[in-house]
Structure to design on (166 residues):
C-alpha cells in the first residue's frame, strides 16, 4: 500500500473514532451504528488482579445492542449525560489495507442531573470511567467501519443505572 493511502486511511480511522465519541455523547445510536459493520461486536471489560482475569460487564453484537438501546428508555436508568474525551494512540493497518486496529485512551465524565450521590450535588461533574478503546476495523473502498470495540476500563465497578455503551 502506498504511504499516501495509508495516511489517508489513518485519518479516516481517527475521524471515525472521534465521530463515534460524539454520537455516543449525544446518545445518537443511529449515527453510532452507521459507523459499524453489520458484524460489529462490542464489549466492556476490566482486569481483576484478585482473580487474574478479565471481567466482562457487557458483550453483544450489533443486533443485541440495537435491542438494548431501543429498550433503555423504558427502564429506570441514570440519565445523567456522559462526555467522552478520547485520544487516539495507535493505528495499525494490515499490509493488504483491508483491516486495521487502533488503541485510544478514553476518559468519561458524568454530569449529575439529580444529585444521586450524597456527597455530590446536582449539576456537578465527576470522573466516571477511565480506560482504553481497542478497536478493529474492516476497510472497504477506503471506508473504515468498526467490526469490534472492546472498552477496557481501569475501573472495576460501574455505578447503578449505567447501561449505556461507554
Amino acid at each position: 500500500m502506498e504511504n499516501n493511502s495509508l495516511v489517508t486511511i489513518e485519518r479516516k480511522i481517527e475521524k471515525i473514532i472521534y465521530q463515534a465519541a460524539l454520537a455516543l455523547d449525544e446518545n445518537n445510536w443511529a449515527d453510532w451504528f452507521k459507523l459499524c459493520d453489520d458484524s460489529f461486536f462490542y464489549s466492556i471489560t476490566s482486569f481483576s488482579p484478585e482473580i487474574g482475569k478479565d471481567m466482562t460487564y457487557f458483550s453483544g453484537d450489533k443486533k443485541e445492542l440495537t435491542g438494548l438501546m431501543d429498550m433503555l428508555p423504558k427502564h429506570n436508568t441514570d440519565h445523567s449525560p456522559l462526555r467522552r474525551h478520547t485520544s487516539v494512540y495507535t493505528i495499525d493497518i494490515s499490509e493488504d489495507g483491508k483491516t486495521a486496529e487502533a488503541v485510544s485512551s478514553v476518559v468519561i465524565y458524568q454530569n449529575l442531573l439529580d444529585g444521586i450521590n450524597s456527597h455530590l450535588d446536582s449539576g456537578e461533574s465527576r470522573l466516571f470511567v477511565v480506560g482504553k478503546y481497542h478497536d478493529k476495523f474492516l476497510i472497504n473502498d477506503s471506508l473504515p467501519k468498526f467490526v469490534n470495540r472492546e472498552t477496557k476500563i481501569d475501573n472495576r465497578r460501574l455505578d447503578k443505572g449505567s447501561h449505556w455503551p461507554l
The longest helix spans residues 3-25.
